[in-house]
Specification:
homodimer; D-Maltodextrin-Binding Protein, domain 2; 3 domains; five-stranded mixed beta sheet; globular; EC 4.2.1.51 (chains A, B)
Amino acid sequence: MNRILGFLGPQGTFSHEAAQSYIDSRVKNEPMNKAYLLKDFYTIREVLLGLKNNEIDEAIVPIENSLEGAVNVTLDILAEEDGLYIVDEHIIPINLNLVAKEGTLPKDIKVIISHPQPLGQCRNYLNDTFQAIVQLEESSTSKAAQRVAAGDGTYAAVASSIAAKMYGLQILNSNIQDAKNNYTRFVVLSKAMKNKTGRDKTSIVFSTENRPGSLYKILDIFSLWDINMTRIESRPAKNVLGQYIFFIDIDGHINEQDVSDALTMVRRKTSFYRFIGSYPTFDCPYDV
Amino acid sequence: MNRILGFLGPQGTFSHEAAQSYIDSRVKNEPMNKAYLLKDFYTIREVLLGLKNNEIDEAIVPIENSLEGAVNVTLDILAEEDGLYIVDEHIIPINLNLVAKEGTLPKDIKVIISHPQPLGQCRNYLNDTFQAIVQLEESSTSKAAQRVAAGDGTYAAVASSIAAKMYGLQILNSNIQDAKNNYTRFVVLSKAMKNKTGRDKTSIVFSTENRPGSLYKILDIFSLWDINMTRIESRPAKNVLGQYIFFIDIDGHINEQDVSDALTMVRRKTSFYRFIGSYPTFDCPYDV
């Protein structure tokens, strides 16, 4: 039976590009006798609920962009939902384009539409180039391109070149992101944990007691066990302003003794703790 | 001469409410012989550039919400711009309402408009109640309410009750935010630093060398000096994926010897460092 990989649709989104790129890299690295099928969902939450409800075997969702930072909705669901594990990560370059209907001139544009993440990624460009223009949020870059195609020539979208091609739009300006190094890291989730590969990292989420130095004490545990922390991200605990949950990535696999021992101690010293997965560190073909 | 306080407009936004509430609390706590005038700007960036260019004396901007987390654009500008100091903080409760034209029924609604922050703050409510509805981003909740008032009765906005009143809209549902404790923390900025009050906190931003344990070593400094860290927030460094800058709040004023000594050491041990201000901790009248 084929494996089904869910992603944030519709066709033509950067998530679609990432899903295809991930499948290509897996087929290349480990020839499989199972083919992958793709299934698109309307929101990131639906992708992950689809995995929980066994509609799909794996889910690929964005977790972090090099310009705009964490994808909050993904982090929040990972903190809420039990039994979903990160089994892989995948990084793709994001090239943003300003696209419009054939014949639209920059001076005609009154409204710019996109997903909030890409709007944030070219915030300076948009503010400098189109000062008093309305920015509209859509659920995906692809939907934004679709709306521009159906519009009256005063709309433009920030979208992928694939989406421009799909909806017959012209690219007015390419690579409009504020910094050149625009990459998005995706994580692949499954209901089964991933075995050790020898080049792994581990993700956890926890909250500490609201006492002075409580986060420091947790980081102290990693220091004691000589475990390298590669990332820390905080999100509001959502009950009280000024209380946070922390997402931490460390080097190593949960099945390694040091990692296992350190995480046992972290679990005991935190008021909330969840293991989100051990998975191979992405072997990046580009210079991120 | 009157002092001018800049905020994210237009009239009727939560930022407007915060600006008015801040002025009221200042007048109450320390009777002033100068009156405050309010000036609205189109974006958070413009508010802060207005302060930089001496168009206003102080700026009030949102920095953190108890549900949706950090306000990224505010943090990014604080990291970029030199010579702007936080001189105060102010917290207000955020009550979100679903508002529409008189006579609109929930089943008529096809599009929901708001600023991305409030859309995120009631994400679960919107996803559960209006599954396949388009969400549009506007530059403010007030602008969103204005568009709904001008619309054809298939639009609704997530907005303040003030905005609903301003644009003659009915409130279909109130307090629709996903968690009851919805508060936004604002910071007040000035070009002059604030004197010690005895109940202060200090904000800094820095990046560390990309070496194992480098963040831990910085937190170690605060631990050595017995300084309590109340908040840590990371943002992407924007040059390389996986590199971050950190915003940290600690108890105490830069003019206290311990704080000053610790920050001198932090400055020496970081590749980028900026002091953002020492200011009185908000004396909260509500149970946040």
